[in-house]
Amino acid sequence: MIVYDLACDEGHRFEGWFGSSADYDDQRARGLLVCPSCGSGQVAKAPMAPAVPAKGNQRQEVLPLQTPQPMANTPMPPEMQKALAALAKAQAEALKNSTWVGDKFAEETRKMHYGERDEAPIHGQASLAEAKALIEEGVPVAPLPFPVAPPEKLN
Fold this sequence. Notes:
Layout: E1 2-8, E2 13-18, H1 21-29, E3 43-45, H2 78-96, E4 99-102, H3 105-113, E5 122-124, H4 128-137
Parallel strand pairs: 4-5
Antiparallel strand pairs: 1-2, 1-3
């Protein structure tokens, strides 16, 4: 399967999926490519960045339990700014009473869940696989909405 960025003569960009490059050529020659925005049949491949896979010998980094989602490159509405500020303040307040456990997060959370240690608010890092395993075990965890720097990396 090949994915091409396509553009019509009106400047609309969209994605097209084809079985092969010959399949794209065939559909274009038969006039089957049409812009979904304006219906123009004048469609061609648009410039696109190459897909460069990661090296196979690179170590996968352990990420914090949160993964921020990007927004479109537009100004943020004031209501959203206010909501994010309130959320950041609530997270900061909650973390005041929480202990950083670093990469021992999954281990420490399991201990609390199974009664091997007293329950207490903690935060730390877990890989995606660790987080999924915790959820599958029924261990209550949630990603933090905003990144948290480990205490040893703070000024």
